[in-house]
Amino acid sequence: MDITFQQIQKYESGANRISAARLFKLSQILQVSITYFFEDVAGRRPITRKKDVPADILGRFLSTSESIQLMAAFAQITNPNVRKRALDLFRSLADEARS
Q: Which domain holds residue 30?
């Protein structure tokens, strides 16, 4: 993966966060679903959502490269108004796709 031993230590200690893209690449190398890294996370509260998303849908979403790219792009948006508009756009697209 082209990661130094020191960088791995920083990930393990929590000094640095691992990017979604790198986590996705690691899941491909290990031939596991990306959800593997989130199973049995001790001491963590589940993510709260306004609408409950079934685990199988969330798992399928997290296992696609497009979702990783989408999450990485969304995470780079720092303006709350722009983030809300992006979310509104995707909700609109989802509604249109169901029609």
A: 5-98
Q: How many angstroms separate the Cα of 79 from the Cα of each of 34, 41, 74, 75? A: 28, 30, 10, 10
Q: Is 11 exposed, middle or buried (0-12, 13-18, 19+ CB in 10 A)?
A: middle
Each residue's pLDDT tens digit, 44-97:
555 554 456 666 676 777 777 788 788 888 888 888 899 899 989 988 998 888
pTM over 0.70: no
Q: Are 35 and 59 in contact (CB under 8 A)?
A: yes
73 close to 20: Cβ distance less than 8 angstroms: no
In the chain, the number of structural domains is: 1
